Amino acid sequence: MVFNLVVEGWRFVPHSYSIVNQFQCLEFLKRKDRLNLFHRDLPYYNSSWQRLEGIFSPEDETRLKEIPSPEQKSDVTFRIQYPYNLEPASSDKTFVFATCEMSLVYPFMLENGRSLQENLSNNDEVVIITPSQWSKRGFLNSGADPDRVVVIPHGFDPRIYHPVTEENRKILRNNLGWDQESFVFLNIGSILVCKGIDLLLKAFALVVESHPQAKLVLKGLDSLYSSQTSLEKLLEDLTFGELEKVLPRLLYIGESLSFGEIAQLYQGSDIYVSPYNSEGFNLPVLEALACGLPAICTQGGSTEDFTNPDCALKIKSHLENVEYFPQFEDALVLKPDLDHLVELMIKSIEDEHFRRQAKSAAVDFVTQGFTYEKVVDRLLLLFEDG
């Protein structure tokens, strides 16, 4: 039986929630034998955010624009926004996407400012969808019923994120202005403190002492966050000696790029590195692996769900209380080890065998369960049976 699905969320802004929402919608549109799709646009989290077009292909952007608004009661509502709204919709079933990055859910993360327990005790209908086991533990720590928190990961589109031949990779690097002899470490994200960029800069300064051919490419997001300003503040915390090593080898990209252009950054790099403190999922690691780019990432966090030793090197870490966000009282984050990060970055440069075998291992592994086709398969099973 075909059911009516209303997705409530953000479109046409390069935030991860909007990105995930739109890729899922493109996959929902292929399932006309199972659902009728409608979309209700919700206000952006920040009123300064501007609608951005051109990050999808023209064909996909047209499909997204043509999704109709709901005009009747739906069978299922799927809401993806922040702060999280856990109120039941007028549909028969309500599912809400939410993440917990720092081990606890706080009232300010919820639209009505009440605790998670209060929100969930007021209704027995809403089911939370979260993208990782790490994130789910945060909801359970905050009193959620395990049966009402379902883990469904994010995905990638293999039309965009895929490996390229060595010949095409050389062409890409030339087009990007990266010389063939350099070893390129890549990180993509908002440059927020939880991303661990402060640790990455210090580690990189140590790595180039023995491997001066190394370069670090940081892709920020100036249209949503003050990424360049955040980076400048982190650079101010480095010593003069560290700055002398880092600055000549650092490339910062702040403008919004299309997904195809983002894929080229993965395809042209040598290693993706993410020494994060807290992530609900960490989508760039998955996209990197889909492009055949091995990863270095923090051990114990959300990336445990979609990485393995064949394609990712794990940075030793331990749990500690959050210090940089006072509003997250009693929350725990991961603290990656600087010395081990340096060791793994050097290993990634010197161990060509690991990089070569990790390329195919990464693509094989993530293709098995993390394409948007497979993610939407799981969502539909939940919507129909949940």
Beta-strand share of residues: 15-25%
How many domains make up the 3D coordinates? 2
User: What is the number of beta strands?
Assistant: 14
Largest sheet: 6 strands, parallel
Provide the helix percentage. 25-40%
From the coordinates shown, what is the CATH architecture of the largest domain? 3-Layer(aba) Sandwich
Question: What is the average of the pLDDT values?
Answer: 96
List unreliable stretches of 5+ residues. Answer: none
Q: How do the SSEs run, as a string of H and E?
A: EHEHEEHEHEHEHEHHEHEHEEEEHHH
Q: What's the CATH class label of the largest domain?
A: Alpha Beta
Write down the CATH topology of the largest domain: Rossmann fold
CATH superfamily of the largest domain: Glycogen Phosphorylase B
CA radius of gyration is 21 Å
Q: How many individual helices?
A: 13
Distance between the termini: 15 Å
Strand order of the largest sheet: 2-1-3-4-5-6
